[in-house]
Specification:
The protein has 127 residues and is mainly α. It contains 6 helices and no strands. α5 crosses α6.
């Protein structure tokens, strides 16, 4: 059976567009902050749905390489935190590899949560 109905990403995009065009302009001033939070949440959800899990295999491989393990990102990230906490990356030669992976994770998360900030980071190298 072919499903031509809009998917979750399309539905969130439609809801966000409708909210911004029809609701946000008429929201009373005392409710504007709440309305903007709703719009922001819908925008984040839309980007999460668009991004899917595309970046996760590469990030999981990078984290796994640091740890000497394999697995999915949700499993490896707590292990990475534990390894950092236990001092496995305190040596200077280990810190640069850790920083590179943490930067990749941060940029992947910014692409979803705050793409405007990501564009600033990309324009300002060395930050």
């Amino acid at each position: 059976m072919i499903n031509d109905d809009p998917g979750a990403r399309d539905l969130v995009a439609i809801a966000l567009r409708s909210f911004r065009e029809a609701i946000l302009p008429v929201v009373p001033a005392d409710q504007r902050f709440t309305a903007l939070m709703i719009a922001n949440a819908l925008g984040t959800a839309e980007r999460e749905l668009a991004a899917g899990t595309g970046a996760e295999p590469a990030l999981a491989a990078a984290v796994g390489d640091l740890l000497g393990e394999t697995g999915d990102l949700p499993v490896l990230l707590p292990r990475l935190c534990a390894a950092i906490d236990s001092g496995r990356f305190d040596a200077p030669d280990r810190q640069s590899a850790l920083r590179a992976v943490l930067k990749d994770i941060t940029l992947a998360r910014l692409a979803v949560s705050n793409p405007k900030r990501l564009s600033v980071e990309q324009r300002e190298p060395g930050r």
